[in-house]
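Sample pair:
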Amino acid sequence: MRISTLSLALTLLIAGATSALTAGSEADFKAAYAAAEAANKEAAALRNQWTTTAAALAAAKKAADSGDFDRAVASSKEAEALAKASIFQATSEKEAWKALEVR
């Protein structure tokens, strides 16, 4: 189960990184950041936020504040991928623990 969670997380990170190779503008950053925040709020509702997601969101905000929107968009997409991976982990492990229960 852990391997599938990690492979999904890596796939999402790679997808986010490749789409972030294009030049980003402030509008691109705002859209990417909003998507990342929404995914992070969903992870919070599932009580499974990752600290790495918060770090990526902070890095995105810092990059945007300094005017580096390419890096800000990339960090936002990374944060979104991490949040989605944490959502996947929460939902997949919601019932998976029963398989580990000693009977």
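The mean pLDDT is 86.
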